[in-house]
Write a structure and sequence with these properties.
It is built from 9 helices and 8 strands. With 295 residues, it is α+β, with helices and mostly antiparallel strands.
Length: 295
């Protein structure tokens, strides 16, 4: 696999945060979180869309009623299996534990979340959860303005056992070439902590629109040139194959109807995060047929 664009080595949180845990608010100036907790909901065939929006809105309603500081971003898949990803951020595992205790101390909220989960479960085939920790050395110009992200690319890498050193050399080669070429590439790299095989890494890249993907592809030639041309790509491919057992990339879009975000985010872009329901134009009265003259 050739790593020559943000699409192949980059992504921005495509995944999930549990609706049963609390996350600190993510401001546009905050650094990337040290811990990401992802909840992945695999929907049954044709049970996504508006049906899933409705069941997820019950979680949001319960949290809003309790004024609960659970902030998470929901994303829906545009590739691979149909699924929704919910992303929650933490500065430490202690913060995560503290937030979970808030749920236990609020029986009304707990009951509301449980009721919402029962309805939501009718639409789901499977639910999974994974936890990752941030690796600053493997990241490249990461963006922390999550409130502006509308599309996410997620690249998953499974590093071979005993090949961590080689993996880091591969990423350094890619970072150096992007830096030299002056591309728009950026990503935050996270390593698995719980819920998946050791040696799993995800590169996360979020952008305001899918046009960023087009830009990434258009910069491939600059990247290859900065890497050293065909010979440089050959060396990278060789090192990548030696260090990485498998990899794949996925594409997601943010779903504001399934996301629970802070008031600051909503005020900054209410048209996206809390759009008003579209109103149907009033139907025009049917034209009356002319009366037939009476004989």
């Amino acid at each position: 696999m050739k790593i020559i664009s943000p699409v192949l080595l980059g992504l921005s949180l495509a995944v999930a945060g549990s609706t049963l845990t609390v996350a600190q608010d993510a401001s546009t100036t905050s650094p990337l979180p040290k811990i990401l907790q992802f909840t992945i909901e695999y929907t049954k065939p044709y049970k996504g869309g508006a049906a899933h929006d409705k069941t997820e809105s019950a979680f949001i309603a319960a949290e809003q009623k309790a004024k609960f500081p659970v902030y998470y971003i929901a994303m829906n898949s545009m590739s691979g299996k149909a699924r929704a990803l919910f992303m929650t951020r933490y500065d430490s595992f202690a913060d995560w534990e503290k937030d979970n205790k808030l749920v236990d101390s609020n029986p009304t909220l707990g009951a509301g979340l449980e009721h919402a989960a029962l309805a939501d479960g009718e639409l789901l085939d499977e639910v999974d959860s994974v936890v990752y920790t941030y690796d600053e050395d493997l990241s490249f110009h990461p963006h922390s303005d999550l409130d502006k992200h509308r599309v996410y690319q997620i690249s998953v890498f499974h590093v071979r056992p005993g090949k961590q050193k080689e993996w880091r050399e591969v990423v350094k080669m890619v970072k150096d070439a992007h830096e030299k070429a002056g591309t728009s590439a950026h990503w935050g790299m996270y390593e698995i902590a719980f819920g998946a095989p050791d040696g799993t890494f995800i590169a996360l890249t979020g952008d305001p629109s899918m046009s960023a993907i087009d830009l990434g592809y258009s910069e491939d030639k600059k990247f290859v040139a900065a890497l050293g041309g065909d010979e440089g790509m050959r060396k990278l491919d060789e090192k990548f194959g030696d260090a990485v057992e498998s990899s794949h990339s996925e594409l997601f879009t943010v779903n504001p109807k399934q996301s629970y975000v802070s008031d600051d985010w909503i005020k900054a872009d209410p048209g996206f995060w809390r759009p008003k329901a579209a109103t149907m134009p009033a139907a025009k009265p049917a034209a009356m047929a002319p009366k037939k003259p009476t004989p």
